[in-house]
Amino acid sequence: QQEKEDLQGKLKLREHLSQTAGKSEATPAPSKNSDLEMKQLQCKLKNSNNEISKQSTTIKSLKNEVQEKEERVRELQAKISQLERDISMKRHLIEDLRSRLKAHQENEKTSNKTLESLERKVKALAEDCSNKKTSIDSLKQRLNVATKEKSHYEQMYHQAKDELEKKELKLNNLESKMIEAEYAMTELEATASQQLQGLAKQTGQALETIQKKLVLTNDKVEEFVTFVKALTRELQQSVQELRTKIKRAKNLEEMRACKKGLSQESVQLAASILNVSTTDLEEILEVEDDEERAKTKMEFERDKEWLQYIQKLL
């Protein structure tokens, strides 16, 4: 708010100065500056007004929050007072229950003493009865066990007899089968040894034939490699010879064309100017250009790369 008041005062001063400047027409430059300052101050006023409106909205929201929190605090205070009342009532109830517990505990002590004396008597009588019953039950159990054991041993005797007879029969059958199996095993061993010997001979012969074929194939491969190497070298040489022949033919054609265009007098004149004979001048004219030399070098390098590639493939 103080900034707003200061800005309003500055605006009033600027307006007063602008009015005075409008009256005096001789000085137009400062009036422009004052107008710019007026615009800046108006912008600042607008910004300050916006900030004041924002702060007023935040103050209103904070006030609403404070009111809500105060209401919450009141509600919580009312709940706390109710809880304190409940706690006081519960304390009174606990004290009453403690007093009743003490009275009941004293009554229980007296009743427990009488119960203990009665329980001792009942236990003594029950022990006498249980001892007699146990002695009778033990005698009955011994009789039952003896009769059961007798019947069980008889059954075991009959079962053992039957099992012995069955096992004797099985033993006889197994002995006969063992003899047959031993005879069959000896026959199988003999046949297997014969078959193994035949297979060993066959595998040895097959290995020898395979080794011979391998040697022959290796020889053929070496011959093929040498043939390919020789063929590539001859190809390269023939290509180089063809290129040189083509270049020579081209040079001869160019020289003939130059000789046709030039007369003998012009050739002699050029030789006299250069202090060179006519044959030397013809040799100078036959010299290749730099571009042709570069081309020949490139072609030679490509031929080398081609040879290297074929060697890698081999």
TrEMBL record:
Biological-process GO terms, alphabetical: centriole-centriole cohesion
Region feature Disordered, mapped onto this chain: 1-56
Biased composition (Polar residues): 45-56
Keywords: Coiled coil
Residue stretches of biased makeup (Basic and acidic residues): 1-17
Source organism, top-level taxon: Eukaryota
Gene Ontology CC entries for this record: centriole; centrosome
Coiled coil (residue ranges): 228-255
Name of the protein in question: CNTLN protein
